[in-house]
Amino acid sequence: MASMWCSRSLARELRPRKALPFLRHSSTATTSSTPVPPTPTDSPAASSPPADPTISPPAPAGPRPPRQPPQFPPTEARRALPASSAYSTTTTTAADSSSAPSVFSASLWASQQRAPAHALAAFAARLSLKPIRPALIEQACTHPSFLTKSEGKANGALALLGNDLLGQAASEFVHLKWPHLPLNTIKAAVSALVGPKTCAAVAREWGGASVLRWQREPRTPDAPVQDRTLHEDAMASLARGIVGLVYQEKGLPAALSFIQTFFLSRSLDLRLLLKFEDPIKVLAATTRKFGREPVVSRLMKETGRYSMSPVFVVGVYSGTTKLGEGFGSSIKMAEHRAATNALHHLYLTSPYPTSTPTLPISTLFSSPTSSSSSKPAYQGPELGHAEVAYMSAGRSRKAVGGRGEKYWAGGAQKSEEGAVVEGV
Fold it and tell me: How far apart are CA 107 and CA 250, in angstroms?
């Protein structure tokens, strides 16, 4: 079967081919007995203009030189070795032997690549930054460690502006939302809302890792380790730079709305930030400051007093007003938790339990007396009471109230600061 197929293909190749139409026409034209005289338009001298003797004919095009491939690794992606490195005397690139020894850093090269246009467009759409130019958005996403002053603009100034706006807005929000908080707790709450870790987390939620440009290693090879840039710091600068960019391009109201949407609306449990070394003493000093009756601890419920796992429920009262309640495996633990619960009720009382307060910074560039504005005039809220100065600086060890001996008499126990624990 194979031999038959080979013989057929060989016969097909040896078969004479028919002349193509243009070949047949040219053959008949050349063999004709009556020659056709050429027309004046067919002559090459008549069809082309006379050559200028002053112009030299173009040189014949020679072979083009081969295209040089781009150098890899690029020079900007090489990390210089420190002088104390063991490879500093042997590692030298062939492209630049006169320079300091360096090695190729894949992470450095990857971080230096510009963000694609579609990534910037998607990032701007997620944050509603459409009217802002993409060049400014790219600048807000560029950490100062990535560029020098001669290479371009980074987000240093925008991040500084955004950090100031975030701190001002968060401080006013915490003061208005919880007016009775102590000073140390206010500082901790502001850091929890707009601190570096929170800004980095918000930037990651935005998808900023795809558009961030930064460089971990410093420019100088012998720089200390402290000069290195952490990824968390770069992400935090991105969030602050975007806030500063919104304020620069859209104004203060848009920036405050942006901060409220992405920062101040995050859930925050302030009970974890309120720490008291001795809440019973703090509660006794607080009631004395407000002119209330002395604190009395009352045993409300108990079970399994003589078992392995007893439970006591204690309430703290000022007169007939119940201030707080707590439980524990001992009366002292229950009294401690009840005083802590009473202080939480005091410090975490908010005049805006479900609404958002109007920040005073929103009236910075607006006139409250203008009649053209549809919004009512701004009225500042009442300030909270000053905190109790007991151990506020951490150096005062003065006891508040007398210290009496613990004793049981008729179902009552005298606590350390003079309050009475009444038994049931």
Answer: 36
* Residues in a beta bridge with 326: 314
CA–CA gap between residue 141 and residue 214 (Å, rounded): 9
Q: Give the whole-angstrom CA distance, residue 236 versus residue 65.
A: 49
- Does the pTM surpass 0.70? The reply is no
- Three-class SS state of 323: strand
Q: How far, in Å, CA of 393 to CA of 141, rounded?
A: 40
Whether 269 contacts 281, CB under 8 Å: no
Instruction: Quick: pLDDT tens for 17-58.
Output: 555 554 454 444 444 455 555 555 444 444 555 555 556 566
Q: What angle in degrees, to the nearest 10, is found between the helix axes of 252-259 and 156-177?
A: 70
Question: Which helix (H) or strand (E) segment is 344 a member of?
Answer: helix 331-347
DSSP string, 83-146: TT-TTTTT---SS-TTS--EEE-HHHHHHTSPPPHHHHHHHHHHTT-TTS-HHHHHHHTB-TTT
- pLDDT (tens digit per residue) in 220-235: 666 676 778 899 999 9
Separation CA 209–CA 207 (nearest Å): 6
CB neighbour list of residue 123: distance below 8 Å, 6 or more residues apart: 129, 137, 141, 206, 207, 208, 210, 211
CB atoms within 10 A of CB 367: 10
